[in-house]
Amino acid sequence: MVIKVENLVKRYGELIALDHFNMELREGEILGLLGPNGSGKTTAINCILSLLKYDKGEIQVFDKKMSPVAYDIKQDIGIVMQNVAVFNELTVYENIDYFCSLYVPDKKKRQEMVEEAIAFAGLGEFRKFYPHKLSGGLLRRLNIACGIAHKPKLVILDEPTVAVDPQSRNNILEGIVKLNKQGATILYTSHYMEEVDQICTRIAIMDRGKVISSGTNEELKSMIGLGEKITVDVPGISREAVEGIRALPNISKVELSGNTLVVKSKKGRNNLGAVLHYLEDHNIAFGKLYSELPTLNDVFLEITGKELRDNV
Amino acid sequence: MKVFSAYFKVLRKNIVGIAIYMLVFLVVVIFSTLGNQSDETTGFEETKTALTIINEDGDHAMTAGLIAYLQEHSVSAEVKNDREMIQDALFFRVTEYVLRIPEGFSENFGRDGELSLEKTAIGQSFGSVYVDSMVNRYLNTWRVYQELAGDMAPDKIQEYVKEDIEKEAAVSLGSGDTSENHGYSMSYYFNMAAYSTLSVIIIGVCIVMGSFYQKDLKRRIQCSPIRTTKMNVILAGANLIFAFAVFALNILVGFVIFGRKIFSTAGIFMCLNLFIFTIATLSISMLVVLVVKSKAAQNAAANTISLGMCFLGGAFVPQFLLGDSIKLLASFTPAYWYIKANNEIDLLETYTLDTMQGILTCYAVEAGFAVAIFSLALFISKQRAMAGYSSQGKQ
Ligand SMILES: Nc1ncnc2c1ncn2[C@@H]1O[C@H](COP(=O)(O)OP(=O)(O)O)[C@@H](O)[C@H]1O
Ligand SMILES: [Mg+2]
Q: Of A224, A269, B266, B297, which is most buried with the most CB atoms under 10 A?
């Protein structure tokens, strides 16, 4: 187990930021910690890194107890903080070199690593730039390069794509997958479900300081019992036909508004096929048809009764 | 890039903001030390600041004297007393510094409801720092006289103040004639070096340590396997080297002015004195870094401490002119003992353990300050570390 957190409780005065937070991160995973702003993601990470004292709970990293003086554990962690933390007085190259030197004293070895990190983050042409000359996206990429240059076994990224242009965002997400392919285990926090959906092998959904649900993308979606949502244009469909569709197995809800029929299905395979067959068998003419799979937002909505995005 | 070289990179990147204090010091030294030997100070005319004075205080002796003094060392720039006109004038560099003397300023000076002068300047240019120091010097000298002789007529005080600041360099410390052995100016120079030492080291240490101790950076570094103690030792070492460089620079300037005289017995004792004072200053800097958090506040603290200590301690106004209460207050600062030692060295004819008693006491007190302040800083930082990796988790 790379990270194991049990019953972590952290209070800020009256506010309970983490309320019996549990988490496991296994080797080779990209675990996405998904939750709206203020749900406690950063607090959890700061506790895991021993930057914050907590009120209760157990934290193990690489199967050893984590503490502020667990330097051997820290050696193998790469951290990309939510707030960019670089020296304004050092160039891109010097910054990466500086942070890498905290882990890798050997100069020769470090030189190679810094070059690799620069290439990795696509900062080649900016190596002599000072941070204040970099755009938001490039600055985030520098922050990442500083965090991963020493080739850590565990990489923790706290909302690395906030306030980043789409191009940099894709570059960052691809980079994270690449790191994982190269053998790093990854803990990734975000409040963007699309990102987590896109890159994570497993997802833990957080709300109010707790993990309320976790599993793979599919597991989460099937857990709430939602299947696809089918929308189809059916000009002049009869009342009987609508009832007929409603009577199909696995269909939970059918609504007709104007010419558009919206069919919501329960989980299960090939609901779209069943609807399609019904329409064809009964010679019902239909136009545009599409189906949508449930999103993590639907999962969040189902469990908490609120939208992920509302809180953004 | 190791921690050590990062320190000096950060320092180098901020060198202008630090060097400006050294420059102010140099100009003041050149003005007062050399300027006294010949009247040809024309070489400095070009560096005069374009200054606008808006006087709403009428023609009280104190205000008039201040204006006359400032105008002598700057170029007057007439600007109408209108907010926008002033902004424009600053923007187009018609003026570099606008000083407004509010109504009732001299009336209330030194009293409970003391008013402050209002300044508007273009950033922190050399010129503005220089005008600041002139204003401070004038007002502080005035304050000293007012303290000394509360019932003296303003006209009379003004005369004394004028005489003082203009002939400042000529004031021989102590009783006057005995100091001719070493020349008046060496102890004067060393006394003023208290200013460059304090201001340059405090500013420098604050800027660099401020960078390393930025909230987010500090946390980021805490995530790495480098031990906190090791980090602190490296940074302390780098600070020490920086302080030593400032010390060496001060000696170098002294050498340029006084030549080999600086290596005379008196000179050596003054150098040693400056060295101890430099270490004490370093302790003060570390305390400031720990206690004062924001960059702006650190700047203000550096200015207040360096100017305040120098005035109180008698770097600019001879100690024998200071009032008893000021002296008492001053004796709680290392600058006072540093300057006292310089003045005593200056008066000394023979160097025996007996005659040196007073000087050695001053050395010891300065060193005591260094140790005490350093211990306090260490204590505070230990306390913080114990209180935990910030249980309040300042975000
Ligand atoms: N230093 C602090 N003092 C008080 N409350 C805090 C502090 N830091 C975070 N919080 C609160 O704790 C909760 C969790 O915050 P955070 O961990 O930053 O959430 P996230 O990273 O998921 O956006 C929020 O309600 C936030 O306001
Ligand atoms: Mg956060």
A: B266
